[in-house]
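Escalated from tier 1: zinc ion holo job.
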Amino acid sequence: MPRGVSYQVLARKYRPQSFADVAGQEAVVGTLMRALDAGRVAHAFLFTGSRGVGKTTLARILAKCLVCAQGVSSKPCGTCTLCLGVAQGTLTDVVEIDGASNNSVEQVRDLQEVARFQPQLARCKLFIIDEVHMLSSSAFNALLKILEEPPPHVKFIFATTEPHKIPVTILSRCQRYDFKRLPQQVIVGRLKQVLALEQVAISDGGLEVIARAAEGGMRDALSLADQVLSFAGTAGATAEQVTEALGIIDRRSVVRAVEAVIRGDAKDALAVVDAAWARGHDQRQLLAAIAEELRHLCVANATGSVRGFADLTDEELSRIDARARQLDGKDLTRLLGLALDGIDPTARAEDPRLSVELVLLRMCGRPPLGDALAISEAILRLEALAKGKAVPPLSEAEVARAAAQPRVVAAPPAPALTPSTAPPVPPPAPPPAPLRSDPTVPPTLFDGEDPPVIAEVPSATAPPAPHAEGEPEDEPEDMPEDNAAPVAAAAPATAARPAAPEAPAEEDEEGPDPAAGLPLEGVDARFLAFVDQVARSHRPMAMHLDHARLLRTHDGAVEVFFPRELHARALSAAVDAPVIKDALDAAFGKGARLVIVPPPAESSQVHVSVAEARERALAEAQRALEQHAKSHPVVEKAVALFGGEVRQVKRR
Ligand SMILES: [Zn+2]
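Tier 2 regenerated the structure:
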């Protein structure tokens, strides 16, 4: 057929005229038909869904159902003057309003005016308001007035792509229908019907390209088909020709780029960018398409199949599922993360091509997962050591094997790929060497997305950060001579404070004591026993006592002072509490009293507080941990690998 000046675009020419013609949206159509046939017709309908999924089309069909001279039903005759009037847009009782351009309150008042009059020909007056979310808030208020007491002859059909922008007062007065994006197969099926009626053809592969590009919208799909027929002819354009005609990114280029980054082939990855650039393709879309392909692979790898998680053809589903089985999930999620991180910067970049190239180079140059596994292994062992568990060190052979381990992702690509576009087949990977000698070690510490946790590795030129020294501020001095009842010398004591289960939850925010089990030097053993017993029954009180410094014991008085007034005030009211009394009796002997004294002027500090001792012990343990970490062979290897230094060692 000649496609000349009088040509009517497919989307308009083949707009469905009855419910039976509508492709997809079975749920919406079914509910509407049942409501119409049962005579349950609302005053206001709300159709929601993304663009081109059939909202306006169904609104017009519904209008026919409501005005048809044959009566209200789900099957309007389509031939009476009223049905034809709706189809041609000439029936004055059906008013179509574009909310985007008629959004002022005056225009809604006009509508109020019009709504007051009886319909001229039909049994009701019908207002179809498209993009209703664009109305101003005063216009919504005017609309609400009509909806609150709708004249019996007035009905509304609202359509919107953004229902969340519609006031709840309006929403609650509408019968709502949510339209879905159309599956690719539905779009392909409908396109085939239309093309057959037009006596033209596009190849099946070409139709799939169109359906994918339409992203679930039938109107877009028909417009794209128009475009293809104009540019690539009517004799069955191939997928390549359709891709070319629509100026969209070739699926196989995307797969090629993904395969290239998986095997770290920067040359091939950049060649894809170059080709896309030469064709004038949007670079952000290219990266988004690469991310989407990686996402499908991730899902297939994690769940066994991407079926049900992506709208793809059977051929695509099989290809992705098969390929995902050959790949490593951790490596895939890491690649997906890198791709996603690059999309926004690419959209903003002055030179988007450079931005995409940088992202792909980063993906190609990621450190092999084998090394990452070895490092995470080392971290697990260090943690075990820090907790005092006996862990045999990695043998030199194990370290060497970890370093020599090949990338576990270097599996051959799926055979489903067309040979002409398939990347060269790398040699098959040997089975990965077993790394774990300890079966009790949790299997996944390192999730593959982040650099190793153990060290923040600055560039080699960055100045080294000073290590926390934890320098003791006040060493215990000799006992003052006026001490009538000499206390025991400040002997090393061990904090063994059990968690108090009855402690109030809001006070217990510091979690388990990180210093538990560490020697607390400089704290009087009896005083520590006293604080520990208080902690067992009253944690908040013990938190204040932690800051107490024992001055002396004298005639049954246990004299303490607090460097900070805050703690002294908090405890002064509680010195006679049974909790304190009992603990004093147990630690210092029957009848001992707690006496809070002002800090001595001459700063004759006999003992450190529990809190100070704990801080010191932690600093000491941290120093030991760092020393151990830095000298560990695998960490030394990590430092060499990343070209930095160990700046901080963290407990997890
Ligand atoms: Zn009719």
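The radius of gyration is 38 Å.
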